[in-house]
Each structure stands twice: as C-alpha cells, then as structure tokens.
Amino acid sequence: MSERRAYLYTGVGETVGVVTLDGQPERLIAAWDGDDLLDADGVMGVARVKKIDRNNNAAFVALPGGADVLLPLKAEMPRLVEGQLVEIEIRTPSRHGKLATARYVGEAEGEPRVTASAPTIDTLLRLWVKAGSPTQGAAALEAVEAAEAQALATVFALPGGGDVSIEPTRALVAIDVDLGGREGADSKRAARQANMAALALSARILRLKGLGGIVVFDLVGRGHDGPALATAARNAFAVDAPGVAMGAISRFGTLEMTVPRRSRPILDRLLDADGGLSDRAGALRLARALEREGKADPGGRLEGRCSPAVAAAFVPLQARLADRLGARFVVTAVEGWPNDRLQVSAL
User: Fold this and answer.
1) Which of 46, 187, 243, 279 could, after both became Cys, cross-link 309 (CB 3.0–4.6 A)?
2) Inter-residue contact 209 to 265 (CB < 8 Å)
3) How far, in Å, CA of 171 to CA of 154, rounded?
4) What are phi and psi of 197, to 5 degrees?
5) Closest Cα to residue 41, out of 20, 27, 54?
6) What is the pLDDT confidence band of residue 97, given thresholds at 50, 70 and 90?
C-alpha cells in the first residue's frame, strides 16, 4: 500500500512544501516573499472584463491590483461584454509566456474585489496527505533539497532497468521510455514491464515538476497491450483526476494523454530563461547553507561565496538571516561563477 508523507520547510524568504510517495518526492510547492498573491490557484474574486476575444473564444479579465487573466468562454456561460463584472476563480497560475487562467463562477455586482485567498501550503499539504501535521525542521529541509534535485533532473531510472526522459516543450511534455539493461530473452515481456513502470514513475514526476497539458509517451517495443497500458495509466494518474484523458496507442507506439495543470511548474521558479539556476533560487540556497552551517557552529563567523547575480539577489534576505544567526556572516561575489556554484566556509 502506498504511503504519503508531508514536509513543511519555513526558511528565510521562502516556505516550501513536499509530499513524498513511498519515500520519493511527489509534489513540490513553494511560496517566496514578494509573490503575487493573486496569481495562485484557488484565488476567488470579482473581476472586470477588459477585452473579449471572440476569435479565440476567451475574455481577458483582471482582479483589482492583479495582472490580466484568461477566462475561457464556454457555451453554457452568458454572453459577456467588456466592462462587465464577473465572479471568477483562478484555476491555473501564470507560467513562462502564459497568462493565468480562470473559471467562470457567475455574474457579479458592486466593485472588483478579492473574495478568497489561495490556500496556504500547509493547507494544501494537509489536503494531499491526511495524516496530521507536516514534518518540519531539518528533516523538512532534507526533503525539500531531495525534491528539488529530482525536479531539476531529466532522466530517471526505472526499477528493474531502463529509464525515462521527461522533457517539457512549449506545446507538450515528451516522455521517452528506454529499455536499457532490461532487455532479455523475452523482449516483449521486458518492454511491457518497462512501459508499465514508466507510467507510474512519470505520473509522480509530472506532479513533482508541476507539469500538465498534452503528454506524449514514446513507448518502447511493438505490439502493445492497449487495454492493459490504459488501465495502468488510469491508475497512475488517478490522483490527478478529474480532467485526465487519454487516446489509443498509435501505430507509431505513442500514447497521448492530457493531464490538468494544477500549479505553476516548479522549474519556472528554479530556472532562468537560459535553463540555469535562477538568481533568486541561488540566493535562497545560499541562505539555507549559511543557516545550516551557522547552527552547526554557534558563534562562528561564516563566508558565503557565490556568483555576482546570486549575491545581488541575496541582499533582501540578508537582514532576515541576520535576525536568525546574528550578523556573523559575509557574502562574497566571485566573477565567473555560475549560479549553482555556492560555497560556505568558516572565517
């Protein structure tokens, strides 16, 4: 029987939640100081319709103080007009190059306003894992760092041999299943086992990365047992329902499905536009490392070394960290270092 556990880490400038499934990270969700509180799943409010785009069957709406949100127009909705007030719920936060999307609740009156905030990370963890309070402290930080490492990975080993590569593109998420060392005398059986394992592992990793939309599996082998793989896929993605749909396996050996997006992809936070660690993510990692070393060496003076961009992003965190450790650390920028190169040592 599967076991899920929840972890909640409250650091300098960040709150991060992790859910593990049988000891492996399954969900990773973060809130950083300065986040747009209106750009989050679950926010509800009364918004004004700014523009109707009939060609794309959508409207652009905005909550007071918030950015534009895309509201898909459905056949069962009344015909909207520009300037009208509508009650909405944010269903998908914004991501790189994409607006947040909302669900139409109903017509509204009065003034634009926010009527409900997004659930907190602690609330979400308790919803996903109904087993008391999330674990905090050092164990939570270890869970966060393990989850981030997997979220940043592309290739994942399958139990019994082989691997899967999971790569998001602008249009879809491509998942390639590779047999690797699993090949044996019964190649058809080996391929079936690899594909079954790939479905279960990929479902977990997609939730961890916060990916959804169109997902295409390039299955290994030929002559697939379509009904058996469809059942395995439904079981693997059951916790993502409703909204999961899949097609038949094509003659090219691909399985196409759609998975609803529930949150902003965590890589939008962790990576910059060039695919490297973002300045802010590097600064938060540096704060974690300084705090960890500071607790291990009470009273000792510390130096953190990092790239100039990470050092600049760390400035807003400095006073907060000093409140925890005291003003006994310095941060030195080193020209030429990438954002993921960090070093903390005693002075």
Assistant:
1) 279
2) yes
3) 17
4) -65, -35
5) 27
6) confident
Question: Tell me, what's the pLDDT at 327?
Answer: 93
Q: Residue 242 carries which DSSP code? A: S
CA distance 93 to 263: 6
**Strand stretches in 179-293, DSSP E:** 213-218, 245-246, 254-259
**What is the pLDDT of the chain when averaged over all its residues?**
94
Return the structure tokens found at 309: 């961009």
Domains of the chain and any CATH numbers: 4-36+119-146 (3.10.20), 44-116 (2.40.50.140), 153-259 (3.40.630), 271-346 (3.30.2320)
How far is the C-alpha of 114 from the C-alpha of 277, rounded, in Å?
34
The C-alpha angle 10, 14, 20, rounded to 5 degrees, equals: 60
Secondary structure of the chain: what % helix, strand, coil (to 5)?
30, 30, 40
Question: Residue 117 — φ and ψ, nearest 5°?
Answer: -85, 165
Token pair listed for 135:
């674990």
65, burial (CB in 10 Å: exposed 0-12, middle 13-18, buried 19+):
exposed
At residue 36 the predicted structure's pLDDT band, cuts being 50, 70 and 90, is: very high
Give the strand pairing for 24-32 and 44-53: unpaired
How long a stretch of residues is the chain? Answer: 347
How many angstroms separate the CA atoms of 112 and 61, rounded?
Answer: 11
Q: Which amino acid does the sequence have at 185? A: A
pLDDT tens by residue, 268-311: 999 999 999 999 999 999 999 999 999 999 989 999 999 999 99
Which three-class secondary structure state does DSSP give residue 115?
strand
The pTM of this model reads 0.93
Between the alpha carbon of residue 16 and those of residues 20, 32, 138, 203, 220, the distances in Å are 13, 8, 13, 21, 36
- Provide the pairing of β-strand 302-306 with 343-346: antiparallel
Asked if the bond preceding 72 is cis, omega within 30° of 0, the reply is: no
Half-sphere exposure in the Cβ direction for 21 (13 Å, CA): 16
Buried-exposed string 20-38: b where 16+ CB fall within 10 A, e elsewhere: bbeeebbbbbbbeeebeeb
Report the pLDDT value the prediction gives residue 223, as an integer from 0 to 100: 86
